[in-house]
Each structure stands twice: as C-alpha cells, then as structure tokens.
C-alpha cells in the first residue's frame, strides 16, 4: 500500500500558477479557454446540486477531455471513474479512464508509437524512471509538487522523483502484508490468528490435517493478471525477504548490491514454496499448486467464502474483489490480519502505490494531475470505497471498512519496518519482466536456483 515528484512546467499562455490565479478571479477562459462551461463561477454547478467552490482553482474547460491510463480494472475501475464526477461537473473536463491488465507493456507501446495517454498511473517506480529517461514523462507542475509536499512523506515523494527531479505524485497506497481469512470459519473451527511465522505454518498444518481433501486446502492463490501475470507471487517473495533478511538486506536486494540469487533470497523463496508449491496446502477450491499460475488474482481468494480454503495472502485492495454483500468485518465472512513476522515483535510491512505522470503539459491535463495529487481527491476516492491512501490529509473515518482503517493504522505505525514493493522499485526489465515470468516458471515446477539465477542475469548492466 500497498498503496513521486515533479517540478514546475509552463503551460500555454503562462505558468500554471498564473492560470490558477486567473481562474480564482473568475477569468473568462480560466485554465482552458473553453468559455467557462464547467460551471465553477459560483457556489454550485449549473444544475445546482454540487458545491463547486473546492474546484475553482482548477479552472473551467468546456468540452475538454483528459485520458487516464492505469492498471486498474473491474470494480476498482468503476470506482476510479466515479471519483471524478464532481470534478467533471464543476470544471467541464471529462476524465476518460482506461484500465488494462497489459498496462506495463501497453504504456510503453503507446508512448513509443506517439499515442501516449495524457496521464498514466505507474504502479512501478522503476517503469516510471524508464519512461522519464526515455523522454516521455514530463516533470510535474509546481502545484502538484506543493500538494505532495503537504500531503505525503519524503519517502513517498522520492518514489516519483528521478535524478533529483519530481515527476509523479502518489495516487493511492496499499498495505500488501495481509492475509485474508473468514472470521466466522475460524470461530467455527477453533482457529486463532497467528502472531509469528512459525504459528502461521502450524496453523497451515492444522487446517490441512482437519480439513484437507481434494477440494479443501489451507490456502488459495492466483497470480494470473494479463500481461502482469506473476506479480502476486513476487509479493510473497518480497514479504519473506523483508522477514528473513530485514530492511537492510531487502534494500541491498532491490538495488542489486547483493545478487538476486543471494542466500537470503533463496531462503525466502523456499519459505514461500513451502506453501505455494505444496499440493497439500494449495489451491483450495481451484486445483493443484500449478493452478495458481492460471487463476486470476481477482478470483484467487474467493474460495474462502465457500469454505474451500482458509487463507489468502493479498493486499488491502483485495477488499474490492469480494462480491457485493459480503460481510467484511472482524466477525464476518472475510477479514484480514497482518502477515506475521518471524517473532511477535517484528513489524515488517510491504507497501505499494501508483504514481501519476503526465505525457503532455496541456492545461486540462495539468488540472487533472493537480486534482489527483490533492487531499480532496484522496478523500473522495477513499470514501467511495475499497482503497486507502497514505496521504496525510485523508480522514481515517472515511475509510469504508475496518480492513482499510487497519491499513491506515499500519501506515502510521512508527515501529514497523516499512518497505515499498521491491519489484516495483527494480528496473522494469527485472521487476516487471524477468521477476514476473520467473515466478510463473517457479510455480509451474522450475527449481529455485534456476529461476533466481535467470532473474539475476536479466539485471541491466551498469
């Protein structure tokens, strides 16, 4: 959360700061010169239903649209589109969201083909760095950087900063170190939430002994995600490197100061394999261990609701995948507990997020980019549901579930050893390439040493 930087960019006809000043003063064209049709020249929109005062700074743009490309799909994609409803009503800018499971490949293809979106939300800082250095993503406007300086920590800002220049603001944040389970099923079977890794494995063995059959297993999982297939398995490895090696080893691994097949990494992969590659422990309600590779990440945990599995390691954002009407609560059908550390005192926390970068400096593009970097947008999106944000301006009470409030509390836990998703920080050739495909090979039967050696060989020279 699993779930950044930019500098000032001039806009046509003057700086963004000047444009915002004109907009606030009721200039005829505001930011976009579109004739003020967005309706933010007063307290409410033209329809009278929305208070547009909070949107005046963005200007009005009659009939303009801004394209936003992300990796967000299905339920979350609808929720993303909903987050712009009042912004569109008040500014006139239609935000056209397109989510794709092939984001990592398609954003490169589109940019290289001269058909880039206006904005893209990069889940991987490593891919953002590549697009910046290839000259496609522009530095952020001053207004975006000001929002980030106010609302995010330096660590979060640094993930969108490339070579000292600020390019992309954090969008959403997620806690990845969660295990989903059914509190009602635990209560019925007398199972307790584990507090250490050994207790988690003991629970796994107990469930297998109590429930084990061809259709009921302790764990269920899925790592299929279109062109991003494999990423859920990389999360397992990252979580375990953080637990077996600690923060320092994790940092050395992510920056390739130690090789990908270092002993500490091998140990972490083998610990993950003790669950994910054991047919006695996975894949409840779906198939054998190799079925993990072809099971959609969206569907991976759903057998919990049918009593076919009991545990599913996935991020806080997985809440959006539970069917409508599911009781997600500490006493309900689904909830989550933090993935344990090696001891009860350990607080390892893997987090992730997306970073919004721009491919052009159109005034409407910058208006949307600035809105998305604000606490106003973060609160709007969090209140819609299914997500959380590490933006310091987010009101925890707006979180739509106990899981998401728990995620916010974990973000704020100063005793936690917090690290950003490693594959997202690595060069994209590795983090969004060889690491993903290597994990698919590993699930399909390849041995640990072979896979890690091949991933290490993919690390770019220099």
TrEMBL record:
<keyword id="KW-0732">Signal</keyword>
<dbReference type="Pfam" id="PF01547">
    <property type="entry name" value="SBP_bac_1"/>
</dbReference>
<dbReference type="InterPro" id="IPR050490">
    <property type="entry name" value="Bact_solute-bd_prot1"/>
</dbReference>
<dbReference type="InterPro" id="IPR006059">
    <property type="entry name" value="SBP"/>
</dbReference>
<keyword id="KW-0813">Transport</keyword>
<protein>
    <submittedName>
        <fullName>ABC transporter substrate-binding protein</fullName>
    </submittedName>
</protein>
<comment type="similarity">
    <text>Belongs to the bacterial solute-binding protein 1 family.</text>
</comment>
<feature type="signal peptide">
    <location>
        <begin position="1"/>
        <end position="23"/>
    </location>
</feature>
């Amino acid at each position: 959360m699993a779930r950044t930087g930019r500098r000032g960019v001039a806009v046509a006809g003057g700086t963004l700061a000047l444009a915002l000043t004109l907009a606030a003063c009721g200039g005829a064209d505001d930011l976009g010169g579109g004739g003020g049709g967005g309706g933010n020249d007063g307290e409410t929109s033209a329809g009278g239903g929305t208070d547009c005062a909070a949107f005046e700074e963005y200007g009005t743009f009659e009939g303009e649209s801004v394209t936003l490309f992300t990796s967000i799909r299905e339920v979350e994609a609808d929720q993303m589109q909903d987050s712009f409803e009042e912004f569109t009503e008040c500014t006139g800018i239609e935000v056209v969201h397109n989510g794709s499971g092939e984001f990592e490949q398609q954003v490169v293809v589109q940019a290289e083909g001269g058909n880039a979106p206006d904005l893209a939300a990069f889940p991987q800082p490593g891919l953002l760095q590549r697009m910046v250095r290839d000259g496609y993503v522009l530095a952020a406007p001053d207004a975006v950087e000001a929002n980030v300086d106010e609302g995010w920590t330096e660590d979060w800002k640094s993930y969108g900063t490339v070579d000292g220049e600020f390019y992309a603001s954090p969008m959403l944040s997620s806690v990845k170190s969660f295990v989903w389970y059914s509190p009602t099923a635990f209560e019925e079977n007398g199972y307790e939430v584990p507090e250490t890794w050994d207790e988690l494995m003991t629970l796994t063995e107990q469930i297998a002994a109590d429930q084990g059959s061809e259709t009921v297993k302790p764990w269920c999982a899925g790592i299929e995600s279109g062109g991003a297939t494999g990423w859920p398995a990389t999360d397992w490895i990252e979580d375990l490197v953080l637990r077996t090696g600690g923060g320092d080893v994790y940092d050395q691994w992510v920056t390739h100061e130690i090789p990908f097949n270092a002993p500490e990494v091998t140990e972490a992969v083998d610990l993950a394999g003790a669950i994910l590659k054991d047919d006695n422990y996975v894949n409840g309600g779906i198939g054998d261990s190799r079925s993990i590779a072809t099971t959609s990440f969206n569907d991976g945990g759903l057998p919990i609701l049918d009593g076919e599995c009991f545990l599913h390691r996935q991020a806080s954002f997985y809440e959006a995948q539970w069917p409508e009407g599911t009781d997600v609560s500490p006493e309900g059908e689904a909830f989550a507990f933090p993935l344990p550390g090696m001891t009860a005192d350990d607080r390892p926390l893997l987090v992730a997020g997306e970073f919004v970068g721009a491919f052009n400096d159109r005034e409407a593009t910058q208006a949307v980019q600035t809105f998305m970097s604000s606490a106003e947008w973060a609160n709007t999106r969090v209140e819609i549901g299914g997500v959380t944000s590490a933006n310091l301006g987010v009101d925890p009470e707006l979180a739509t579930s106990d899981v998401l409030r728990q995620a916010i509390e974990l973000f704020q836990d100063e005793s936690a050893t917090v690290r950003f998703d490693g594959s997202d920080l690595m060069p994209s050739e590795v983090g969004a390439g060889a690491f993903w495909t290597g994990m698919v090979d590993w699930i399909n039967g390849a041995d640990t040493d072979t896979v890690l050696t091949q991933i290490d060989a993919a690390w770019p020279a220099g």
